[in-house]
Amino acid sequence: MSLNEDPTYTELKSLAEKYPENTLLQLKLKYYRPYPPTGISDDDVLYEALKEKYNR
C-alpha cells in the first residue's frame, strides 16, 4: 500500500492542507510512516513486551 492509499495519511494530509499554519500537523505529515501490516494485534505486542520485561 502506498502512502496515498493509506487512510491515516490521507486524513493527515487533508488536515495539513486545511491548516498550513499548524506546524505540528506539518511535521506529522512530513515524518509520517505507517506501521507495516502484521497479523499481530497491538494487544499481543503489548503483552509480549510486558512479559519479556517482567519475566526476567
Per-chain topology:
Layout lengths: L6 H12 L4 H9 L10 H13 L2
Helix pairs in contact: 1-2
What can you tell me about this protein's structure?
This protein has 56 residues and is mainly α. Helix content is 61%, strand content 0%. It has one domain (3-54).
Q: Summary?
A:
It contains three helices and no strands.
Which tags fit this structure?
mainly alpha, elongated
Q: Tell me the domain tally.
A: 1
How do the helices and strands follow one another from N- to C-terminus?
Answer: HHH
Extract low-pLDDT stretches: none
- Global Rg: 16 Å
Report the principal-axis shape. Answer: elongated
Helix run count = 3
- How much of the sequence is in beta strands? under 5%
Largest sheet: none
Roughly how many Å apart are the termini?
A: 38 Å
Structural class of the secondary elements?
mainly alpha
State the share of residues found in helices, binned by percent: 55-70%
Mean pLDDT: 84
Q: Work out the number of β strands.
A: 0
